[in-house]
User: Which sequence fits this backbone?
């Protein structure tokens, strides 16, 4: 059967713990395939490879920009190139774009927002409950992803920075205890989350936590409390949300 949709997955993480850019692409694609195996998923490597060209956007239903250990405020050329790519999505026609964590921050910066260290000054790691502003979200997207009555969702968090000021015209669709801008919408074509809908508990502990421990980014009490929050219970729902947005 010919795939109905075509989604590009843009990896912004080259750390060996993920198996480099290819490894993270494969991880995200596997999570997406679990909710729709009939979509074609195409990997792109933002750090070392070629980004999609503007002309490629006509061939794709949408794109996902991944998280990263890099900061969007770093001066690397690949980050500048990715910001220019994001600006292709500035109108209301064509392929859609979904940003995750670093991806959310990069989209905000591309359109004039600000990204700074977390307001608390502490690294955020664990699962947080995000309050959904259902009245601001497209009704069909909310219903198909979360159900009519759902007003919150639990999502993995791993970030030292956040969008401290959103671009003009941006609509906030959700907040958490540590982040005022958990879900952002830029018209009908762009959406993003500060949290990680793609991450599962085993990846949080096995791939992300060791680096935080090595760099003493969490003290023992913070780690203990954060571990206690970890849950995969809303993971499938969150991945459905990402896929529904990109293909609706």
Assistant:
């Amino acid at each position: 059967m010919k795939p109905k949709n075509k989604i590009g997955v843009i990896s912004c993480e080259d750390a060996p713990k993920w198996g480099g850019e290819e490894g993270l692409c494969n991880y995200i694609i596997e999570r997406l395939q679990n909710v729709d195996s009939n979509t074609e998923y195409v990997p792109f490597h933002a750090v070392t490879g070629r980004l999609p060209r503007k002309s490629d956007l006509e061939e794709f239903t949408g794109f996902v920009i991944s998280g990263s250990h890099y900061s969007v405020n770093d001066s690397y050329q690949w980050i500048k190139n990715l910001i220019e790519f994001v600006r292709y999505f500035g109108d209301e026609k064509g392929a859609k774009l979904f940003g995750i964590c670093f991806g959310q921050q990069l989209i905000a910066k591309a359109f004039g927002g600000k990204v700074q260290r977390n307001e608390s000054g502490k690294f955020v790691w664990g699962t947080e409950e995000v309050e959904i502003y259902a009245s601001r979200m497209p009704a069909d997207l909310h219903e198909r992803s979360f159900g009519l009555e759902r007003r919150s969702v639990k999502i993995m968090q791993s970030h030292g920075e956040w969008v401290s000021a959103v671009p003009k015209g941006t609509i906030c669709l959700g907040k958490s205890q540590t982040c005022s801008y958990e879900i952002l919408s830029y018209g009908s074509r762009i959406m993003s989350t500060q949290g990680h809908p793609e991450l599962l508990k085993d990846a949080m502990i096995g791939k992300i936590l060791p680096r935080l421990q090595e760099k003493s980014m969490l003290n023992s009490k913070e780690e203990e409390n954060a571990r206690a929050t970890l849950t995969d219970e809303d993971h499938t729902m969150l991945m459905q949300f990402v896929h529904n947005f990109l293909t609706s």
